[in-house]
Every structure is written in C-alpha cells, then in structure tokens.
Amino acid sequence: MLPLDLLRVKRRGDQIKPDYLLDIWPASRIIEAYKPGVKLGDARANVEKSGLPPKLARGLAHLAEKFIAVEEVNKRLLTRVRLETFREAAKAHPVVDEALRQRIIRAVAERLRLSEAEVEGALRKIHEDELAIVSAPSIAPQELVALYNTSLIQTLLFRSIRASFYVKASGSTVKELARGVKRLGLMYIARRAGEGIWIDAEGPATVLRQTERYGTRFAKLVPYVISADDWRIEAEIALRGRTYKFVDSKSTAPPLSRRDIEPVSFDSSAEQEFYARISPMCRIEREPEALVIEGRLFIPDFKIGDLYVEIVGFWTPEYLARKYEKLSSAKVPFLVLVDERLALSTWRSLPHYVVLYKERPRLSDVFKYIKPYCRPPQPRAP
Q1: Which of UniProt's keywords are assigned here (predicted)?
Q2: Domain assignment of residue 64, yes or no
C-alpha cells in the first residue's frame, strides 16, 4: 500500500481507475538508484532526479525500499550520544563557532569513552538518510511493477465507501478473504454466483474517524482476491469531494502481485491427523469451495466425494454458537466430528452425521460414514 499522496489515478466522468504502470524501465531505473555503498539520502536524491513523474518515482521508491538492506546501527548508543550532546551544548548555549562545537564533541567522547570520530558518526547516523545501503533491492523490475500496480488498487480502496469482491477460488483462499473481512469488524453479505462468490463489505471511508490501521487491513484483502482463479472488484470511492465507481477484474487488470499471502496451515492437530489418516485411502480435499449459508460464508474443513467434513474443537462460546447455527442450516451432507468436552446433547441434534472424539478423531469411528463417498486417491506423479 502507498501513502495516499502518492496515489495516481485516471478519472473519466464518474469512473476511476489506478494509473497503472505498464512499462518495466521505470522500475529498473528506480532499482538502479539503490546501489550498495550509496547513502540512503543520496539514493533518494537520485530518485528525484530520475526524470520520472514525481508521484511515480516516489511510489516505486517507497516499495523498493522495503527490499533493501541498510547498515545496522546501535540505536541505543545513537540516542545516548545525541542526548549527551544536547546536554553538553545546553551548558554552553549558544554554540556559535566550530571551536566550541569541537569542545562539546570532545567532552561527550570522553564521558562515553568513545572517539571523537565515533561521536561525529553517531550524530550523523541518527538520521536515516546517512545510513549506507548494504544490498540492492531484492526484487526484479517486473515484480516491482506488479507490486506497484497492486498497491495502487489497495490505496484506492482505502478511500472506498463500500466494495464488492467476486472470487472463484479454492476454499482456503475464500477462507482467508473472509477472515480478513471479519478482522476489520465489518458487516458483510456473501452470495453465491455460479461457481464463484460475491462478498459485499463496507469500506474504510464509511467510518466516522478513519485510521491508518483500518485502511491497511482493508487493503490486505486485495492479494487474496487477485490470487483467485477469477476475480472482480467493484467499489464506490470517495475522493476529493466526489464519489466515483471503480471496477476491475482479472481480464482487464495488468499483472498484479500476490505477495503477502500467508501459507495455509491446519487449524489444529486433530485436522492434521485426520487428513494424514484419510488421504492414503480416499481422495480428500482440504478447505473445499465455500458454502453460502443464509448470507454467510462457511468453508468446511474437508470434502470427501460429496460429503463435507467439519471438525469442531474446543473454542470460544461465540465461535461455536455461530458454527452450530451454520451447520444447522446446511442443506448438504456433513460429517461433524465434535470434541466430547462440548455440550454433547446440542451437537447431537444436528441434522448430520455426528461423531464424538477425544483429543483426535479415530478412523474406526468415522470410516463407516466416509466409505460410501470414498474414491481411491489419485496416484502421485512419478
């Protein structure tokens, strides 16, 4: 995500789109500015002199700097040197000539048992621009372009009143997208659309007092959306006193970056062991397609043939209540594996196969329900 003052857009009537970068050479020029051994301030000065439009140059540089390494400094020592220098200078205020300045440096050096050169260096390196670049940006020009274009979308959505995301993807991708929406504390409605799902969410611009944290979290949804097999974004954008419509999709957007997507992991050891036990015998799909149950998303843990499997562990009462409500309304076949520490009579009333387990589900308890749906696992490629 870019700072809002670096956002570049194209407006036409009530339509708005990011001013995407379609060439690689500007990214190459910016990466070239950050050479090892060059001070960060000098590299930034070279960016300003690159001949590129200022917002474009600064936006690319803002992202490129996330992939450089600069010399490490002892921040505690730098702070102490600065504090002692200010204290010493206050005794002789005002410091108006070089001789007095040198006496202050010498006094600080003696007090801290440093050389005068070390004190001078510490005073310089307290400023970020004085730090030397150790390694050039570890990102290829084409990757930087893709990341820049993705960041434009994220920054534009920071000004959204509301946004709708269409995704056609695996359950794990939809699950992470749904988690992101919920982490924002937003109300959302999900609806099935053919093989995909629409998620309607309120945007950051709807809150009375916007915060950078809120907008940043909203922007984090974008990598999950664009990682889908197919996707589309529709949003209302409040910018400079007007409201615009933003629409883009996989078929119309330039190549985008899928960075910052967390790898999918098992939610519990019970899930991990269940998968390990079943996968050698049956084709089993982890976090399959998302189900929409009464306008809410539900991504089962597994799918075996046409049978969905959900493992219900010990969690917060609110979380369990929401899961129970969704399972009660589900119209597809489910095998629900329930930790026996929960309220058993409630879970047994579900209109599905229900099996209790202690610590982890046992194969002997569940296989009779799985067997009618079981298909041999696909052979591994040689």
Answers
A1: Endonuclease, Hydrolase, Nuclease
A2: no
Residues 8, 85 within the same domain = no
With cut-offs at 50, 70 and 90, classify the pLDDT of residue 183. Answer: low
Residues 6+ apart with CB under 8 A from 79: 126
149 and 211 in one domain? yes
Query: Omega before 94 cis (within 30°)?
Result: yes
**362 in any annotated domain:** yes
Residue 280 domain boundaries: 269-373
Both 177 and 319 in a single domain? no
Q: What is the 3-state secondary structure (H, E, C) of the chain?
A: CCCHHHCCEEEECCEEEECCCCCCHHHHHHHHHCCCCCEHHHHHHHHHCCCCCHHHHHHHHHHHHHHCEECCCCHHHHHHHHHHHHHHHHHCCCCCCHHHHHHHHHHHHHHHCCCHHHHHHHHHHCCHHHCEEEECCCCCHHHHHHHHHHHHHHHHHCCEEEEEEEEECCHHHHHHHHHHHHHCCCCEEEEEECCEEEEEEECHHHCCCCCHHHHHHHHCHHHHHHCCCEEEEEEEEEECCEEEEEEEECCCCCCCCCCCCCCCCCCCHHHHHHHHHHCCCCCCEECCCCEEECCEEECCCEEECCEEEEEECCCCHHHHHHHHHHHHHCCCCEEEEEECCCCHHHHHCCCCEEEEEECECCHHHHHHHHHHHCCCCCCCCC
Give yes or no: residues 126 and 92 share one domain: yes
Q: Is the pLDDT score of 348 beyond 80?
A: yes
Residues in the chain: 382
Predicted confidence at residue 211, as pLDDT, reads 47
The most confident of the ranges 74-83, 149-158, 218-227 is 149-158
